[in-house]
Fold this protein.
Amino acid sequence: MITLYTWGTPNGHKISIALEELALPYDVRPIDITKGDQQTPDFLQLNPNGKIPVITDDEGPGGKPITLSESGAILLYLAGKTGRLMPQDLRERLEVMQWLMFQMGSVGPMLGQAHHFMRFAPDLIPYAMERYSKEAQRIYGVLESRLAGRTWLAGQDYSIADIATFPWIARHDWQGIDLKRFPSVQRWYDTIRARPAVERGMSIP
């Protein structure tokens, strides 16, 4: 059985969406990051970095339990465990990994900063707000260019690259982004949002 330690953030939603898409049985353990649950001794035993999500799998590699943190690593593990959401063709696999890394290195960190300075910072800092607003616009431009004439971010099918990116785009309003300015991203977003497993995953916890 898989146990998911998570909260209602884009990084947490990546994993709940993947688990729903893969129809893997799992238990949810909410970690309320607004109350500091991620810094408790018990949670730090699972992830010394004090971040969600984390999974434990009683039936890990070789049938032995495994604990994993870092959402990208968890997505790669779940895809490998099931043989789904990741192409078999090597070129397409590398393409998916490339766009997964783009999410981890650019989409998440930069849009996360936009969330912080435009929505949560106790004081308005015009320089930071302008910096991350511009970076958000740039990232959406990259995604628009990539998705023009394509159904999915990488490969021929829906993959963990799409799953990793979607929850961040789902908060476009927090980033001051009007999706109408990015029609290819809008089409891709609407297609994924309509998937029943995505709707279920986005509601967890």
Q: What stands out?
A: The first strand starts at residue 2 and ends at 6. The helical segments are 10-22, 41-46, 71-82, 90-120, 126-147, 160-169, 183-193, 196-202.
